[in-house]
Amino acid sequence: MNRKFKKCLITGITGSGGSYLAEYILKKDKKIKIFGFYRSKGFLSEVNKKNQKDKDRFFFIKNDLNNFAKLVKNIKKIKPDLIFHLASNADVKKSFLYPRDIILNNNNITLNLLEACRILKLNSLIIICSTSEVYGVVNKKDIPIQERQIMQPASPYSVSKCFQDLLSQVYYKAYGLNIIISRMFSYMNPRRTNLFQTSFANQIALIESKKKKFLQHGNLNSVRTIIDIKDAMKAYWLLAKKGKVGEIYNIGGDKIISVKEFLKNLIKLSKTKIKTKLNKKLLRNVDVTLQIPCVNKFKKHTKWSTEVLFKDSMQELLDYRREKVKK
């Protein structure tokens, strides 16, 4: 199976994940047109600037997905044959502070998108970009985590992702929408500063520029697998091309590392001495401590494998944040 697409719609295209995905697809498929819904400008100018030669192939449309009538109107106009649903407020820490806002937003935008596709009788392939956060706190005996692992959300954000995930399963089974669900584990995203990897890199860049004295961190004992942003975007694209409709796929790497080890390795790449200290405000009310996936099904169905070396990925992350701090 190797599906071909003419028009791809990305929700949340100006977000950190959506912007990288748009750029990746533009490079991989020279004929596809990309449409993106956005609420705030985010990385809009960065995508515009970096992809000038392809500017006749991508289109930004300001559309808050909470506005159902406008959403239906725009999807009807575009008639996409592929949809990546990435729009969500994904700040886990903030979800403990503003649970109602984040849950209402994330639940409503997904319900609106699926309902718009249902009433328009769209035949599009819909990739629901869920997260490993739906698994919550997992016991050692259940590692590596299989797709059938029970959902035990540990934050208001992950409750909203469980809703999106379960709702999508219902729209596939009850209404026949062509849905595939991905549950992405940790990946490096240089544009998203509220991820621990990017936050550490950003703080190192600030300390190197003498704009900060200490690197602050939260819980360092969490154990994860981490992949590069390019490998994550390649996974999403292969999922659209080769994934099986109705399936749920874990996506994650083989490199198992604690947050403490990650920080230690990143500090080794620094050009100056880095002093660290715990900031209790960065600790989550409940933390997810063990996130190691089984990705056998995903690899079998798509032939995906990681390409970027871990040390290269860390270097690129740090260099990107250095560049941002310089500007």
Describe the structure.
The protein has helices spanning 16-28, 44-50, 68-78, 92-97, 99-119, 156-175, 196-208, 229-242, 259-268, 296-302, 310-326; strands spanning 7-11, 33-38, 58-62, 82-85, 125-131, 178-184, 214-217, 223-225, 248-251, 256-258, 275-278, 290-291. It is an alpha/beta fold. It has a domain at 7-188 and 227-252: NAD(P)-binding Rossmann-like Domain (Rossmann fold, 3-Layer(aba) Sandwich), CATH 3.40.50. α6 links the parallel β5 (125-131) and β6 (178-184). α1 (16-28) runs parallel beside α2 and α3 (68-78) crosses α5 (99-119). The chain is globular, with a radius of gyration of 19 Å.
Summarize the structure.
This protein has 327 residues and is α/β, with parallel strands linked by helices. 43% of the residues lie in helices and 17% in strands.
**Over all CA atoms, what is the radius of gyration?**
19 Å
Low-confidence stretches: none
The helix fraction, in percent, is: 40-55%
**Approximate shape:** globular
The chain-level structural class is alpha/beta
Measured between the Cα atoms of the first and last residue, the distance is: 45 Å
